[in-house]
Design a protein that fits this description.
Distance between the termini of chain A: 30 Å
Oligomer: heterodimer
Distance between the termini of chain B: 36 Å
Radius of gyration of chain B: 13 Å
Structural class of chain A: mainly beta
Number of strands of chain B: 9
Shape of chain B: globular
Order of helices and strands of chain B: EEEEEEEEE
């Protein structure tokens, strides 16, 4: 257990479904991140939140909608996804945006399959 | 784009030392050098980090070039469990997007 908990671990959804991914940390970190990792591809930064405010949106399609109600929780709302959105979605947190000397803590990820 | 470059893959024999290089020629004076590794279907986990001096911990050693434009992660005796993708990334305070982007990393294979 890393201190960053992602649920669910696995998710299969149809292209017309709406689902949400959840990330939770109680490390006292102020920054939280969503990354996407497609098969055999590097990590792709999606969104960054710092003190609950979105600071980065890396040109992510609107079918992905993030929500950060507080510094401990981060959600990724999914709707009308495409099969190419199937990937491992990773949440990370850090004490401050940019991580400084303290680095990032990652969750174990949600394996998403869109059918 | 990522601010670090690493070889795509490396191979090692079990119980031999492994040196994983990373180039970061545009590193700034306030950037820390972090290394993470990712096992299949898991999130990256912290390995080691440093600023200017070489660092040792129970997992690995980090050798940082004097000009800080490159670094090397050293696994002293590779085991089969060390087979993973290793990422080198620069971190700092404030976190411009370039510092939040992971490169492709180095896929380390360990042969018994």
């Amino acid at each position: 257990e890393t201190g960053v908990t992602q649920t669910p671990r696995h998710l299969v959804m149809g292209m017309t479904n709406k689902k949400s991914l959840k990330c939770e940390q109680h490390l006292g970190h102020n920054a939280m991140y969503w990354y996407k990792q497609s098969a055999k591809k590097p990590l792709e930064l999606m969104f960054v939140y710092n003190f609950k405010e979105q600071t980065e949106n890396n040109s992510v399609p609107s079918r992905f909608s993030p929500e950060c109600p507080n510094s401990s929780h981060l959600f990724l709302h999914l709707h009308t996804l495409q099969p190419e959105d199937s990937a491992l979605y990773l949440c990370a947190s850090s004490r401050d945006q940019g991580a400084g000397p303290y680095g990032y803590t990652f969750g174990s990820g949600t394996r998403l399959t869109v059918v | 784009d990522a601010k670090t470059t690493q070889p795509n893959s490396m191979e090692s024999n079990e119980e031999e030392p492994v040196h994983l290089p990373c180039n970061h020629s545009t590193i700034s004076g306030t950037d820390y050098i972090h290394w993470y590794r990712q096992l299949p279907s898991q999130g990256p986990e912290y390995v080691i980090h440093g600023l200017t001096s070489n660092v040792n911990n129970r997992m690995a050693s980090l050798a940082i070039a004097e000009d800080r434009k490159s670094s090397t992660l050293i696994l002293h005796r590779a085991t089969l469990r060390d087979a993973a993708v290793y990422y080198c990334i620069l971190t700092n305070y404030g976190g411009s997007q370039g510092n939040l982007i992971f490169g492709k990393g180095t896929k380390l294979s360990v042969k018994p």
